[in-house]
């Protein structure tokens, strides 16, 4: 690291909150009010004339709504302003072609969250080795899990401070995500070796030097359970299977149009908690693995995969029905659980933070080509894990994923980089951009 040049960087740190039932009720009410505020803003945007769609008019409407509707008054004023800024930023992203147009937020599928835009209102203090205290508007002073040192108290200054936070709720409860602004030295070029990475299902990350990254020893599956929850322990898999069968049975007894019974809702919540626990473990593995790769290697080469096309359904149409639909559905589920795109995203900013380089190469042909002789002979890929070159006078035999990783690195060394089609991307971006009159 060079100590001469400093660059500002903002990152988030998530911690678990310890809320009482009354505080949970207050946080839930604020989250529902924030979602309602978003929906009212979207309805106002659609009804107002185009020349009246300004930030000042929307701000005046929000202030009046918080006075007239008691339900919206539960949301702090700064959190309401944050909803307004987020909504306008969503439209800017749409106009610039970075995202689709914002829409209404549903009660069930939307993530419950409340923004705390001012960092000085948090008044963070560490009271124990594992716990800290934070002020939440209209909730009070609550505890949160201290898992990382934060720039608070004497450690905070103009260059190292907490600029705000966001409360987020998932199946495991309420969490707080701190926005931390800090200055770090500009990284010097990483002098580590080059490595090619092939992503897969049998071997999650196969490296060209043979240092494969695996999830660990797979747990024994209970009878009747599918390999969909590889991040759960055997006892948790048995519990999940029991809860899924119990939920299916209770759902079959419920008549159409009836309200969901309380027991069934409780079963659904327990299933969500197990799913959320598996997701957090997968994220933890991805963070640790990508950090190790960024520290070890100076150049990381991956395949430019179009994952949305890889997980398309095989049902087909009525005239031309698909084949092996159930097998393809299981494959799609396994690909989605591996979250290859999220792994590449983590590698992108972590490799850059350590001064390395992330490169992408075209994916077609990397699994069929022999990394020893360089020829592509049909039938060399015998199965999911075995590669035996069928070229005469070669006979190279190796793990299929390792062979593909070596091919990925070879494509980078010969200069064959993945470049997106400019014409196609330009047409898609222009299609989403609205004319100036609609802004």
Topology:
Layout: E1 6-18, H1 21-47, H2 55-68, H3 70-73, H4 77-95, E2 113-116, E3 125-126, E4 131-136, E5 140-145, E6 161-170, E7 173-185, E8 194-199, E9 205-207, H5 234-253, H6 262-296, E10 299-304, H7 307-310, H8 325-338, H9 340-353, E11 357-362, E12 386-388, E13 397-399, H10 400-413, H11 422-432
Parallel strand pairs: 8-10, 10-11
Antiparallel strand pairs: 1-5, 1-7, 2-6, 3-4, 4-5, 6-7, 8-9, 12-13
Helix pairs in contact: 1-4, 2-4, 5-6, 6-9
Q: Care to describe what's here?
A:
- The chain is of the alpha+beta class and 439 residues long.
- 40% of the residues lie in helices and 18% in strands.
- The protein contains eleven helices and 13 strands.
- The protein has helices at residues 21-47, 55-68, 70-73, 77-95, 234-253, 262-296, 307-310, 325-338, 340-353, 400-413, 422-432; strands at residues 6-18, 113-116, 125-126, 131-136, 140-145, 161-170, 173-185, 194-199, 205-207, 299-304, 357-362, 386-388, 397-399.
- The chain has a seven-stranded antiparallel beta sheet with strand order 2-6-7-1-5-4-3.
- Helix 2 (55-68) packs antiparallel against helix 4 (77-95) and helix 5 runs antiparallel to helix 6 (262-296).
- It is globular, with a radius of gyration of 26 Å.
- The relative contact order is 0.11.
- Residues 218-226 and 420-439 have low confidence and may be disordered.
